[in-house]
């Protein structure tokens, strides 16, 4: 009698184990293989540029070929020359490092952050020839990711005179370029207006 009960329990356990294994295999195929392949296929067909990193060529046009890309519309990069619009500061690695995305993690009252902001404000004011009170917040503070590719229209506006002077262009032409690369609020209500620094600088290089 005892041996029959044990055999029955073993048989039940075996059935349950096999059922669980079958379910594991099915879910692995569906969620781990079929679903990712389907999403990848839809992305490559419907949104190839976005799916491949939103890469940008040197002439500002879009590309899916990494060998031709000079940057991504999603990731900021530094522009050191005075003829370029500058992005906001970055605390990602040595700056704009996509492998070390992150902020400084310093609170708004941290003395080190306060001192850094004051230093940046003075430097930007001197570079752009404006009053420190006119320097916008995004010119002196890094984003949470350290990779934001856009700046505010206010920060772009105080850079127009410098860029126009260094490139020998009319101020009106540079202002028009800024306006052409300014995006409004998403759906008219979400977020704030923003200027894409990479695409703006590439457009100016192409025009110049």
TrEMBL record:
Residue spans crossing the bilayer: 24-47
This protein's superkingdom? Bacteria
Compartments annotated for it: namely:
Cell membrane
Name one matching Pfam family: KdpC
Predominant location category: membrane
Keyword Iron listed? The answer is no
**Which keywords annotate this record?**
ATP-binding, Cell membrane, Ion transport, Membrane, Nucleotide-binding, Potassium, Potassium transport, Transmembrane, Transmembrane helix, Transport
Q: How does it sit in the membrane?
A: Single-pass membrane protein
Q: How does it assemble?
A: The system is composed of three essential subunits: KdpA, KdpB and KdpC.
Similarity section: Belongs to the KdpC family.
Q: What does this protein do?
A: Part of the high-affinity ATP-driven potassium transport (or Kdp) system, which catalyzes the hydrolysis of ATP coupled with the electrogenic transport of potassium into the cytoplasm. This subunit acts as a catalytic chaperone that increases the ATP-binding affinity of the ATP-hydrolyzing subunit KdpB by the formation of a transient KdpB/KdpC/ATP ternary complex.
This protein is called Potassium-transporting ATPase KdpC subunit
Gene this chain is encoded by: kdpC
């Amino acid at each position: 009698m005892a041996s029959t009960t044990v055999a029955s329990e073993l048989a039940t356990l075996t059935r349950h184990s096999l059922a669980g294994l079958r379910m594991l295999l099915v879910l692995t195929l569906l969620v781990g293989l079929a679903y990712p392949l389907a999403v990848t296929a839809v992305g490559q067909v419907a949104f190839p540029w976005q799916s491949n990193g939103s890469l940008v060529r040197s002439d500002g046009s879009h590309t899916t070929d990494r060998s031709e890309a000079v940057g991504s519309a999603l990731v900021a990069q530094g522009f050191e020359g005075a003829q370029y619009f500058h992005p906001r500061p970055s605390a990602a690695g040595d700056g704009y490092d996509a492998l070390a995305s992150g902020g400084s993690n310093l609170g708004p009252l941290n003395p080190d952050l306060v001192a850094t902001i004051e230093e940046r404000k003075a430097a930007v004011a001197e570079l752009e020839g404006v009053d420190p009170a006119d320097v916008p917040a995004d010119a002196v503070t890094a984003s949470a990711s350290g990779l934001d590719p856009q700046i505010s229209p206010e920060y772009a506006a105080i850079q127009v005179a410098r860029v126009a002077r260094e490139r020998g262009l009319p101020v009106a032409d540079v202002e028009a370029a800024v306006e052409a690369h300014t995006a409004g609020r998403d759906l008219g209500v979400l977020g704030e207006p923003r200027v894409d620094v990479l695409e703006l600088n590439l457009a100016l290089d192409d025009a110049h």
